[in-house]
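[Discussion] Sanity-checking designs against the backbone

I'm trying to build intuition for which residues belong where. Below is a structure token string of 482 positions. I'd appreciate it if someone posts a full sequence so I can compare it with mine line by line.
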């Protein structure tokens, strides 16, 4: 993909695959879209998929599978214990990561549950480059707390820094010195740092963290859910890795870690998860929880068909032509939006294109959830479903005060190999229209606010009826067009 130049000089992300199965989409009319988002409490999680044109909510469990993955599903060995399918998966993970032990889980957060139950005790701290929602929830549920020690560059929304997911090594050392090593449950690095715009860390940064972990005898845990994107960026952007294969980079990364866990809803383009461990001691500590929460040790809540697809998907992750489609489509979308003066996270990361709602809706205060309001407005304007990644995705503090997020983002995920370039162009077009009319968009307030992970099923309403005005402007500008 990256090596194909167009005669025209145009920078076009060219797909190295073809589409062989399609799903028909529905684009409901704009007045229907307003009704649908109202019924969904202005929460895009509560929309019905039949009412969504481009589902950019997430890449989780919705990446396109390859023909080889589909074919492998047919030869799955359906047995509760000792399945050949499981053996193939375990062998593939050992081959790719070089860590000997594996525990299967039904998805990524299930791995986080087990890790947190075993490693986090009351009062303990988990330093990390940045949190993910479910990760933080499991750590705090077990009495621990999260310390985000991302480098300052990570929180700059617009930047040219190639590795905004890096951890600040000085802050890590200071944190361990301040609290003492016994208070540190483990050090966690998240590949393709989700909540700050799918930003990668460098291999060098991971090696530096390993040195600190060795000095204080700390465990280094890698959340590899978004590893594919991070691997691509390391190969593209890190000078010393340019001549290495994706497989070699993966091996070098894994050799630095004690534990690697992942959501296979992202990594490997299937559905499931698991924990790879370096030592038998760690494996034995966690093993008992797998049959309790997940299922027997040779499936851990995954279907055998998904395990077969995952085994093939992991191997395909080692192929640069398979993992570059997502980041290159995202870069195309980000570049086009930047050209139009629309605020997005730069440089383009993995996972999706992230609109900076704090800037896009500068007139909407954080207490009125600008990223949530933008998600609602974009659905009305386009039938596109994005995901709020801002204050709504945070939890209130123990006194019930709002915790304002560092960034107010509307994440528009590009599940791997799912959308065509004309659909991406449609998204760019409707976002541009919305940006022109951003003054019409107002804030949101809760009607129903759950205590835990409120963004999943909380319900909100618009403050001062702005949605009708947006609808009227759309109808005025687009006439009969959907
Ligand atoms: N870690 C990271 C970095 C993730 O992005 C996710 C899920 C998980 C852990 C949990 O994995 O969903 O399989 O239980 N991210 C999804 C998303 C939900 O939409 O970004 P899971």
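Best answer:
Here's mine. Compare freely.
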């Amino acid at each position: 993909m990256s090596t194909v130049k167009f005669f025209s000089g145009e920078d076009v992300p060219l797909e190295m695959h073809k589409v062989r199965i399609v799903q028909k989409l529905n684009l409901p009319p704009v007045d229907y879209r307003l009704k649908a988002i109202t019924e969904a409490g202005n929460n895009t999680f509560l929309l019905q998929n039949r009412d969504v044109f481009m589902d950019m909510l997430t890449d989780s469990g919705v990446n396109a599978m390859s023909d080889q993955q589909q074919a492998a599903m047919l030869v799955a060995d359906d047995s509760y214990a000792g399945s050949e399918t499981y053996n193939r998966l375990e062998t593939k993970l050992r081959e790719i990561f070089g860590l000997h032990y594996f525990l299967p889980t039904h998805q990524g957060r299930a791995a986080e549950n087990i890790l947190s139950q075993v490693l986090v005790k009351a009062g303990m701290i988990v330093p990390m480059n940045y949190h993910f929602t479910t990760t933080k929830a499991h750590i705090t549920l077990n009495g621990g707390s999260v310390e985000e020690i991302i480098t300052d560059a990570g929180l700059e929304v617009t930047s040219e820094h190639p590795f905004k997911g890096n951890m600040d090594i000085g802050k890590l050392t200071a944190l361990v010195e301040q609290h003492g090593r016994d208070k540190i449950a483990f050090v966690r690095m998240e590949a393709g740092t989700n909540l700050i715009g799918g930003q990668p860390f460098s291999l060098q940064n991971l090696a530096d963290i390993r040195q600190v972990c060795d000095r204080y005898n700390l465990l280094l845990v890698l959340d590899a859910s978004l590893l594919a994107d991070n691997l691509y960026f390391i190969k593209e952007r890190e000078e010393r890795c340019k001549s290495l294969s994706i497989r070699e980079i993966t091996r070098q990364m894994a050799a630095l870690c004690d534990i690697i866990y992942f959501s296979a809803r992202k990594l490997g383009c299937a559905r499931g998860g698991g924990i790879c461990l370096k030592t038998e001691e760690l494996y034995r500590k966690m093993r008992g929880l797998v049959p309790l929460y997940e299922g027997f040790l040779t499936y851990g809540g995954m279907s055998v068909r998904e395990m077969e697809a995952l085994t093939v998907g992991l191997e395909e992750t080692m192929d640069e032509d398979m993992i570059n489609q997502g980041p290159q489509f995202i870069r195309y979308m980000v570049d086009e939006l930047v050209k139009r003066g629309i605020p997005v996270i730069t440089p383009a990361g993995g996972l999706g294109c992230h609109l900076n709602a704090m800037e896009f809706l500068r007139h909407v205060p954080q207490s009125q959830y600008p990223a949530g309001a933008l998600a609602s407005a974009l659905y009305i304007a386009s039938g596109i479903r994005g995901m709020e990644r801002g204050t709504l995705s945070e939890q209130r503090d123990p006194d019930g005060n709002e915790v304002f997020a560092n960034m107010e983002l509307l994440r528009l995920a590009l599940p791997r190999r799912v959308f065509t370039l004309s659909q991406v162009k449609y998204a760019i077009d409707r976002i541009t229209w919305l940006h022109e009319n951003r003054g019409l968009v107002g804030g949101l307030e809760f009607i129903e606010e759950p205590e835990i992970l409120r963004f999943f099923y909380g319900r909100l309403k618009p403050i001062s009826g702005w949605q009708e005005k947006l609808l009227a402007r759309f109808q005025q500008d687009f006439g009969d067009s959907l």
